[in-house]
Amino acid sequence: MSIDFDALRRRFPVLERKTYLNSGSYCALADTVRDAFNAYMDERLAVGANWDVWVTKNEAVRAAMAQVLRVTPDEIAVTASASAGINSLASAFDFTGARKKVVISDFEFPTNAQIWHAQERLGAEVVHVPAAVDGYIPLENFARVIDDRTQLVAVTQVCFRNGARLDIAGITRLAHERGARVMVDCYQAIGAMTVDARALGVDFAVGGMLKYLLGTAGIGFLYVRSELIDELVPGNSGWFAQQDIAAMDITANRPSRTARRFEAGTPPVVNCYAAEAGLKIILETGTDAIEERVRALTRRCMQGLADIGWPAITPPDDARRGPMVAVPSRDAAGLFARLLDQDIVPSFRDNNIRATIHFYNSEADIDRFVAAMSAHKARCGPQA
Ligand SMILES: Cc1ncc(COP(=O)(O)O)c(C=O)c1O
Predict the structure, then answer these.
(1) Ligand 1 contacts CB of residue 347 (under 6 A)
(2) Contact, 76 vs 127, CB < 8 A?
(3) Is the CB of 359 under 6 A from ligand 1?
(4) Average pLDDT, stretch 289-309?
(5) E strand or H helix at 185, and its extent?
């Protein structure tokens, strides 16, 4: 079945006014996501507290998120952010034994480095896997660091700085051979690509709903492979993490038998409304079709930039690229401001302009971005 991406695009009103290439920071708002926010407001006005419905919303997000990751709802914790999920997971690890090492990479988003470094006071030893001279982190670099003292490899799928995509299935195979577990931070991939947790083989996955999953800030997820849930008891807890939320028992901590044990307090209700609506669009469109479209658009962008003599630093190999194209500039902040003036909305990190691309972007968006870059090349081009 072919998908009418033009019709889908019309559901995101900001795209009429802006060349929006910033979904890796915050998605464009869809018509049905706005309707979902409004539905919550209408209920607040009409009935006040609507807990019976609100609880079902949290469960709807759990079920939809499970479908996106191709796992079961019992393996999903609905969290307040990716950071909340990582913190909760970290609170279930014990670093006093022989496996003290947590392996992360130099591609991590800060939160996934900071939280593991925060475990150093409990005995963790955090080791960074560096990039090779070409800027990528090949499997060999992980092979050099993951060993029989490694408890966890906590690694990003797509780097937020340069759009490079790591070989998560390969890293996981390697880690499992050496008795270590793997957590993938798939925030810069999920929604724009298929992230099939079982096919990747990972033990844990974290992310959130404000980027390519089309939802909002203030809601995220943690996937925990079912076989591991029982043995991991988070020190992080709360009443919504209990086996029986309604028990109101203050004599003991009785964690849920499902991944809900990694949750804490009252769910982010209004965010559940938005997340449910965003996830519905992703599921209806299908992540395989989205990935194919995003790959074609990022490829077009890479080619266009090469053609104007201003190549991206993002890997050209499709298998090593996420939904982002990062372009080095000697004045990224200035270039960003110029592009904004032209109603082109990218983002910038370090010395790079980042175009983060979703299925609702068009070929015309990409061409407009490349044409604008060409016009700014003399002033803002790559580092000398
Ligand atoms: C790869 C990655 N991980 C984690 C985060 C942080 O997520 P949160 O703010 O939900 O903790 C981000 C946010 O941009 C990200 O890009």
Answers:
(1) no
(2) no
(3) no
(4) 98
(5) strand 181-185
Pocket test for ligand 1, best of 111, 115, 193 (most atoms within 8 A of CB): 111
108 within ligand 1 shell (Cβ under 6 A)? no
Mean of all residue pLDDT scores within the chain: 97
Among 367, 365, 372, 298, which Cα is nearest to 28's? 365
pTM above 0.90, yes or no: yes
- The three-state secondary structure class of 245 is helix
Q: Which amino acid would we find at residue 148?
A: D
Q: Long-range contacts: 291-298, Cβ < 8 Å, 24+?
A: 291/192, 291/193, 291/194, 293/3, 293/5, 293/359, 294/192, 294/193, 294/323, 294/357, 294/358, 294/359, 295/321, 297/357, 297/361, 297/363, 297/365, 297/366, 298/163, 298/323, 298/324, 298/325, 298/357
Give the three-state DSSP class for 22: strand
Does residue 190 have a pLDDT over 90?
yes
Query: Strand 352-356 relative to strand 19-20: parallel, antiparallel, unpaired?
Result: unpaired
| Secondary element (H or E) of residue 155 | strand 150-156
Q: Is the CB of 85 within 6 Å of ligand 1?
A: no
The tokens for 281 are 């669009």
